[in-house]
Amino acid sequence: MSRVAYVNGRYMPHGEAAVHIEDRGYQFADGVYEVVLVQDGAMVDEMPHLDRLDRSLRELRIAPPMDRAPLRLVMRELVRRNRIRTGLIYMQVTRGVARRDHPFPENAVPAFVMTAKRIALPNVETVENGVKVVTIRDIRWERCDIKTVALLPNVLGKQHARENGAYEAWQVDDAGNVTEGTSTNAWIVSNAGELITRNADQGILNGITRLTLLKLAAREGLTFVERPFSVEEAKTAREAFISSATSFVTPVTQIDDTVIGNGKAGSLGLKLRDTYLAYAGGEGRTP
Ligand code: PDD
Fold first, then answer.
1. H or E stretch including 108?
2. 264 by DSSP, 3-state: which?
């Protein structure tokens, strides 16, 4: 079955979907994006993702490409046309097409594209054995809270991870603290059993999965704190894991050369993963 994409008001065969060469996203990375999980044909945490899209647009002073109601219809139509049960929706808004010049163009119309694809969720073995992460210097800018398409440091970091047999790279700030992964948020569980993830300042993307996990942790009566943690602290932690819309909670069992805990997925991480999956299949869904 051929894939269908949405480009500026039209549904197009994926292979023919294109934007102009002077789109500012292409020339300046002047745009933002969102990734929404589709599970059993329903969106997970749809509203928080759309709220974050609005925030990213506001921060960059790009006008919303359309109202929320029609946007949600496009999401559903794309899921339907691509026959997605489990997958993701990718949406991107750029400042639009204009003659190349750095200041905001006067009359550019925001460009809006959406794609949907099937994805395989992390398999049981990955979840039980956990994954390896490597640490790298965080070389990004000071507004990592905006979900922009300017992802070159993240791309280089993920490639470094792959070339070193790792699933993810944890970025480390000048103080020696972990900020986040290249496409995931970072978590540890201290030896006292406390759940720790960095506070959402401008140094990280405030993950929607991260926010949901904090909500679920509070509801479950788990002890948690949002604060920076160092690489050293992570390496001596009882457990570690990463979170994102497409990886949920994925246990981390090795950081650089250090094995975490007993080298198997930790119990709190697995419990949170189950709690999250129940949420994603229940109250977190919008059909
Ligand atoms: N990445 N941090 C970064 C830098 C990210 O790119 C992402 C998401 C996250 C997790 O956010 P959320 O829980 O809202 O997915 C954290 C998406 C999935 C991506 O770029 O593909």
1. none
2. coil
The pTM is what? 0.97
Tell me the CA–centroid distance for residue 127 and ligand 1, in Å: 19
CATH of 4-118, one of 3.40.50.620, 3.40.640.10, 1.10.600.10, 3.30.470.10: 3.30.470.10
Give the pLDDT score at 180: 99
Q: Are 195 and 222 in contact (CB under 8 A)?
A: yes
Identify whether the C-beta of residue 158 lies closer than 8 Å to the C-beta of residue 179: no
Mean pLDDT of 266-287: 96
- Whole-angstrom distance, CA of residue 50 vs CA of residue 181: 22
Q: Return the sign of the alpha-carbon dihedral for residues 244, 187, 124, 157.
A: positive
Q: 183 alpha carbon to ligand 1 midpoint, in Å? A: 4
Cα–Cα distance between 170 and 183 in angstroms, integer? 10
DSSP class of 95: S
Contact (CB, 8 A) for 145 and 204: yes
Atom of ligand 1 nearest to the CA of 205: 2
Pocket test for ligand 1, best of 89, 185, 187 (most atoms within 8 A of CB): 185
The predicted model gives 191-199 an average pLDDT of: 97
Pairing of strands 285-286, 10-13: unpaired
Question: Helix, strand, or coil here: 209?
Answer: helix
Helix axes 208-219, 267-280, angle to 10 degrees: 110
Measured at the alpha carbon of residue 145, what is the angle toward residues 140 and 149, in degrees to the nearest 5? 65
Tell me what pLDDT residue 25 has. 98
> Which sequence spans correspond to the domains of the chain?
4-118, 124-286
- Asked if the 124-286 domain carries CATH number 3.20.10.10, the reply is yes
